Structure prediction request, 241 residues.
Amino acid sequence: MDTVTRAAGRTLAAVAVLAPAVVVARALRVRLSVGPWGRHWARRAQHGDTLLVALGDSLTVGTGSSLPRTSWLGLFVAHVESRTGRSVRVDNRAVYGARLSDLVATQLPLPADAAMVTLCIGSNDAGRTDPEQFRRDLAAVCAQLPSGSLVGDVPEFQWGGRVDAAADLARVVREVVAGFPDLVLATVETHTVDTSVLTELAGDFFHPGDPGHRKIAAAFIEAYEAGPVPRARLDGSVTVS
Prediction:
């Protein structure tokens, strides 16, 4: 065996040993962001001209993004502030790992002065919550949302045993929101189709990285721009009742 061959063998052996550790470290880094991101949103709840309430799970916490401002919610809020010229106070009630039943139990009721509500839930329910129960519970939540609220469907799952279940719940969300003409659908599934596992997901290969969060933000920004009600509520031209 020549020197080059031996060196290549040592390199491959090192990669085989280190690769699992790198994957674990990257996944741990994603999980450990939950606390700091939560503290960021707690500070954002303290100031601003108009109130936006965000309901959901780890996607809305911003898990997987490199910074809270590069999460989908951070990007969406920045767009709204730029669009309206008003600062937004963000009451982000989303919880890592939350299912719809958790949202009902811990993130409601809504404050009376909310100018807008965003809702994005279902990733943790996929394959775990009966779709018809999810439908009933989501309809009950949607009935409590103020006019112009933005409701996202479930993002496309790129791999694993819950791909079809996620698609089923995305369809349920669309059907439920269609029954509430005062609400606006954010087409998260459509915007996340063909997301790259290697380049657009975070280190845990489940949550979106910054590129994935940009896709989700685009869905909510598109929904926000789709009609006059959400814009009007946040720029102060419609009184919150």
